Amino acid sequence: MDHHCPWINNCCGHMNHVHFTAFLFFSVFGAIQSTVLLAIALYRGYYANWYFYNGDRSKLVYLTLTSFLMCVFSIGLAVGVILAVGGLFIIQLKTILRNKTSIEEWIVTKAEVRDRDKPFIYPYDFGKWNNFKQLFFMPLGNGIDWPVVDGCDKYSLTIEQLVQKSEKRTRMRYFQAICDYNGSWFPLLSQGFRTTCKLPITDEPRLPLKTNDTLCVTRWKTHWLYGEKANNSKQAKGWFPRRCVVETNGKKKIIDLAALKVISQFILNCPRIVNILGQ
């Protein structure tokens, strides 16, 4: 699956990615056509007197005040569609040519800058043209298993992701809440104007806090931190204001039992990882 689209109320993935991409293309193309036609009508209506006396009268367009305003409004809507949907179409086209979802792009970016013995090879990139053909002309895979490049297997990306998660936990920093935070997305009254204006640009949840909560932080910005509560059985994660917490001096070793259980189950079900650990 690539992503869930609320506009079509469906997920975009193996079986309908081509149709979704075509939908984006024709939406932009239709908006461009509408903009051109409306602009021509607006131009001819504005110069109606010239067309009446000097030009071809078959091209005359008469605009009342209402039709003029509606024409301008429609052009604005069409241009908005071109910019918004066109941007999404470009993102989708880049995704197709690279054969990477947004999450995979994030994993690969971190893999390329991580210290390692040999360069990381993304297992699903066969070149731009082959990636394009794989989606539009000769779909491969069944939505679960996919062909991979030489030197990789279907677990290469998963193993890299597990290593990154392990390294992230070694970089984890611990904080303690010094005041309550109710999880508001716009905490103007409680956290101030600057914190509210510097919100993280993401749809990830906010994490409510209680005084003296211990927090494991893995990401940070100037005014916001991202993490989870220590010994949190519900695995709730989210962003919270930096001003609500202070960093503790000693790092507590907190074992995330739920995460270890998931990783251990995956390792036991993956023969290649078992072989690597055995070596």
UniProtKB/TrEMBL annotation:
Domain Palmitoyltransferase DHHC: 1-106
Subcellular location: Membrane
Recorded superkingdom: Eukaryota
GO terms for MF: protein-cysteine S-palmitoyltransferase activity
Gene3D superfamilies: SH3 Domains
EC class: transferase
PROSITE patterns (UniProt xref): DHHC (PS50216)
Membrane-topology descriptor: Multi-pass membrane protein
The EC number(s) this enzyme carries: 2.3.1.225
Swiss-Prot/TrEMBL catalytic activity: L-cysteinyl-[protein] + hexadecanoyl-CoA = S-hexadecanoyl-L-cysteinyl-[protein] + CoA
Transmembrane segments: 20-43, 63-91
Keywords: Acyltransferase, Membrane, Transferase, Transmembrane, Transmembrane helix
A single GO cellular-component term on record: membrane
Keyword hit for Acyltransferase: yes
UniProt family annotation: Belongs to the DHHC palmitoyltransferase family.
Domain remark from Swiss-Prot or TrEMBL: The DHHC domain is required for palmitoyltransferase activity.
Alphabetical list of PANTHER family matching this protein: PALMITOYLTRANSFERASE ZDHHC16
Protein name: Palmitoyltransferase
Classification of source organism: Eukaryota, Metazoa, Ecdysozoa, Arthropoda, Chelicerata
